[in-house]
Amino acid sequence: MSKNQKNQHQITQVQPLWKTTTTASRTQAEQSLTRRTDYYNKEDGSYGKDTTKVTHSSGAFGRGGLGHKEEYKVVDKHKVGDSKGYTEYYTEERFRTVQYGNTKSSNNNSNRTITYDNTSNNTVTYDDSNYYSD
């Protein structure tokens, strides 16, 4: 082999694959939004998955629609792993408000409200100031 002929090795850097999908669904009583981000590194076999699902449902309940129930639910799943195993972290937050109709068995909870604001750090507000009266 001469000095001008050298073994040349081409080094190729493998870029990790990122994929983000957002899915929305809606029915008469429920609507949801799911966002999923997947990461995969072919070089070392490591991967990660982040999934967030926000669901809002509402509707009447009881015989003849005596009351109304509304619920917000936020589910977060985080999973990282490789060929040796994985670690998963799961959280679920649920906020529900129920208003009873005007029946004899009603305990008059209509003045209690729960609101959920996803835009300001997942703030939950519980207001029962009008419920307790002197």
Can you give a write-up of this model?
The protein has 134 residues and is an all-beta fold. It has one domain (17-127). 0% of the residues lie in helices and 57% in strands. The protein has strands at residues 17-26, 30-40, 47-61, 67-82, 85-99, 113-117, 123-127. The protein has a 5-stranded antiparallel β-sheet with strand order 1-2-3-4-5, with no helix packed on it. A two-stranded antiparallel sheet has the order 6-7. β2 and β3 (47-61) form a beta hairpin. The radius of gyration is 26 Å and the shape is elongated. The termini are far apart. The relative contact order is 0.13. Residues 105-112 and 128-134 have low confidence and may be disordered.
